[in-house]
Amino acid sequence: NAGVMQNPRHLVRRRGQEARLRCSPMKGHSHVYWYRQLPEEGLKFMVYLQKENIIDESGMPKERFSAEFPKEGPSILRIQQVVRGDSAAYFCASSSYQETQYFGPGTRLLVL
Amino acid sequence: QKEVEQDPGPLSVPEGAIVSLNCTYSNSAFQYFMWYRQYSRKGPELLMYTYSSGNKEDGRFTAQVDKSSKYISLFIRDSQPSDSATYLCAMSGATNTDKLIFGTGTRLQVFP
Question: What is the pLDDT of residues B35-47, one digit of tens each?
């Protein structure tokens, strides 16, 4: 019974490159959430998706960030033209209508 | 004022002590309350999940919610060195699929 899976676990990018983070929800979960954790800070909500739909993107930066959860395959958080301030741990969580959110191990993004 | 306030600690206790962790919040619409444990460089792990006011017990852990005071607590009995981690409170609104609002986390150290 695999939990939430994220890859890669660590990602290094140079300024201006693109970062793609992937998340596969727990079996039976159709809701996916992305959160960001900056050093010494709590988790901040970014976006909530269901299959092929963005439900709430109120925490997403207006530029350079996008997310999708296609009909087939994992959810993807994409950061274009990364800057040093994007360095953080990005966590994906999944849930169903009956359960609360379970988190993956995170992707640690380092922008050089 | 932050929506959720949590003392960052660190909190250092001897093995076997009873630990009390707390959060206050300002949004009276919150209905779902969670506690997560996060070990260093790992993903948050769900410990307790409660709806509305009341108490919930699971092994050595007890969660309390007092909506009239906008105050939630997590008690850990017979604390162990393996409990050393950061404890995050989280809460959400009308449905359990809403985004989670997190406290900044309390770092707990249990020494032998």
Answer: 999 999 999 999 9
